[in-house]
Specification:
The structure is a single chain. It contains nine helices and 17 strands. With 405 residues, the chain is an alpha+beta fold. A six-stranded mixed sheet has the order 13-10-14-17-15-16, with helices on both faces. The protein has a five-stranded antiparallel sheet with strand order 1-4-5-7-6. The protein has a four-stranded antiparallel sheet with strand order 2-3-9-8. Helix 7 packs across helix 9. The N terminus is likely disordered.
Length: 405
Amino acid sequence: MRKLIWICLIVLSLSAEGSAAQELSALARVLPGSNRIVDRGGEVELTITMSQGVPYRVFTLDAPRRLVLDFNELDWSGLNSETFEFSSRIGEVRTGLFREGWSRMVVDMNEPLRVDTVVLDTSDPTAAVLRARLLPTSSSEFAQSSGLPAELQKSEPVAVEIPAPKQRQTGESPLVVVLDPGHGGIDPGAESDGVSEAELMLTFALVLEEALVRTGNFKVVLTRTDDSFVPLETRVSIARKAGADVFLSLHADALIEGRATGATIYTLAEEASDAASQKLAERHDRGDLLAGVDLSGQGDVVATVLMDLARTETAPRSEMLAESLVEGLSKVTRMHKRPRLYASFSVLKSPDIPSALIELGFLSSPKDFKQISDAEWREAAAGGIKDALLEWRKADAAAAIGLRQ
């Protein structure tokens, strides 16, 4: 059986459950200076000190191994990760918004550790302290005891209503563009000089949105408008619900090995252009995996065939979109030595929406990081993408009209 440690603090009367609960979540915050992860050899102890007790849940997930702590809701801004002891058994720690009403901490485990005890001490009226004790266990026992709690499994939809495919745009109406600022919340993406990819991409997306809307030729929808975690599949669903004509995912990754600089445009392909592109696609999907989103679901054979048929029309449109983006961006910024690449990015897999992923640069490159952090550069890059979309819109509409004649 799966073992789940679930403790829920009942601090509100049932009659005040609605608005009072919202006030409670707004008040809960991590208090600085008293948060630790300590590896004592025989055990690992995690301590979180917050302004007051809130409902929470603690569980483990396998492949990869990690400890997950959800709080309803907890502001993580007071957390100082420098007090965490990153031993051979404890790896990276990520915190942030996970989904509406819930904040999440994910602790990577390099070795299997089971949750032995979790205690929330609320005896001090000025603070609440959560202590979790982890003990070594075997890989098989860890796998057996790990898994999503039942309430999270039930919250996942078992069936999705697929809307009718949108008719191809012919230039008569504003182009519906869905901008997808990569990462967010519990998944900050790459980081440089204390600034996250998630933060930079949201800033750029807002600049690009303004540049597009200002022309009067575009309707823009963002997959996120704050530092929230949005699963990859949900990002695609947002685009479909919006009736998107175009889907653009915005990123600025970092390379651990080797050097790279300049903007790159990716489109979908089962086989990546090179090993670096393959690793990049895996890292993008890994954000969902580490956050606890199940990526194992497989569509049935009929659905797969239908999607493949839809892609036979969409793929050439995505290619033309990518070429336009390369041309537009190359006029305002430097491009990667190979500006057109391919990989199996999950976020690009909508079968009937022309989609591209834009790597605006690499945060591992000081030059790129400086550019992306500069407001004038962002305006220029947004202008390049705007011009590219205007050109693509005309060419794509002409092709659609030609097919109907």
